[in-house]
Design a protein that fits this description.
Length: 305
């Protein structure tokens, strides 16, 4: 292709979807060309002379033509639906041994949990193995989208939606939230790394997640989607900059630093830093287990200046 009409296809599903797209587009181009050609010929060839005001000859339909222009489109539309149905069925098949990754969307970040129980803020996938994403949401409706995989799937609270992906191209591709989900929607992005099976095995064994336990809690709950926090390499700008927690806690004057952080997580509306909207989800108090909450508070208070 000389013009990149589509993102590069990075999965088998995307290759099939692109085929359906070009199949339907090819038929549309053929039909369009024939219609325009007949129209142009008629306009030019049957054009009346300058002073010709007589009626044209009376005609009464053309049975053969009418059957043809009914039958041909019917065949074409049926062909498109059969090709689409076959691709849809193929793309839904995960095979007998898919890698299962649990995907949880929250305002405004993604958490990807692997069979070994470890969670990450970005997606790592092995090449050429079917992956079944089990997608859900912790708050509102989001939608999972990697343009190069050509598929979208909604993340709905209280429901698990599956998406099968068989990556067939090494590289790093963007993960985008494609359902308006609140103030941080445009920032709700991550990335998918497609790696060789050997690298993936090492990733599963080693677990790239190192650092204090509070960091894991920070990442799993998507704090970095909205907050800047240097120790976590987080650069969100929807909520207050957590690097300034200490001075802000002093200004807020709501007790010791750890108590202030704890309150801000479980009851974010209790004190809102001037200049910021009341955008923080109110679910963390019930969503984050008590021991993890303690780890997170410790982590933030130690990293704060
Ligand atoms: Cu999540 Cu938009």
């Amino acid at each position: 292709m000389f013009i990149p009409w589509m993102p590069v296809a990075a999965s088998r599903q995307a290759g099939r979807i692109h085929f359906v797209y070009y199949f339907a587009t090819g038929i549309a181009i053929a039909v369009f060309s024939i219609v325009v050609a007949v129209l142009a010929y008629s306009v030019l060839h049957f054009r009346v002379g300058p002073d010709d005001e007589s009626d044209g000859p009376p005609t009464h339909g053309h049975t053969t033509l009418e059957i043809a222009w009914t039958a041909i489109p019917a065949v074409l539309v049926t062909a498109i639906s059969i090709v689409s149905a076959v691709v849809l069925a193929q793309n839904g098949r995960a095979g007998s041994n898919p890698l299962i990754v649990k995907v949880k969307a929250v305002q405004f970040a993604w958490a990807f949990t692997y069979p070994n129980g470890k969670s990450y803020g970005s997606l790592t996938l092995p090449k050429n193995r079917p992956v079944k994403l089990e997608i859900t949401s912790g708050d509102v409706i989001h939608s999972f989208w990697v343009p190069q995989f050509s598929q979208k799937q909604d993340a709905v609270p209280g429901q698990v939606n599956d998406l099968v992906i068989t990556p067939d191209r090494l590289g790093t591709f963007p993960v985008v939230c494609t359902e308006l989900c609140g103030l941080g929607h445009a920032l709700m992005r991550s990335h998918a790394d497609v790696v060789t099976p050997a690298k993936f095995a090492a990733f599963m064994k080693g677990g790239a997640q190192t650092g204090p336990p509070g960091l894991a809690v920070f990442q799993q709950n998507g704090c970095g989607g909205c907050h800047t926090f240097k120790p976590a390499n987080a650069t969100g700008t929807v909520g207050p900059d957590l690097d300034n927690l200490k001075s802000e806690a002093a200004k807020a004057n709501r007790g010791p630093l750890t108590a202030f952080i704890h309150e801000s997580i479980v009851d974010p509306a209790a004190y809102i830093q001037p200049g910021y909207p009341d955008a923080m989800p109110h679910v963390f108090g019930t969503q984050i287990p008590a021991n993890q909450l303690t780890q997170l508070v410790q982590y933030l208070s130690k990293g704060a200046k």
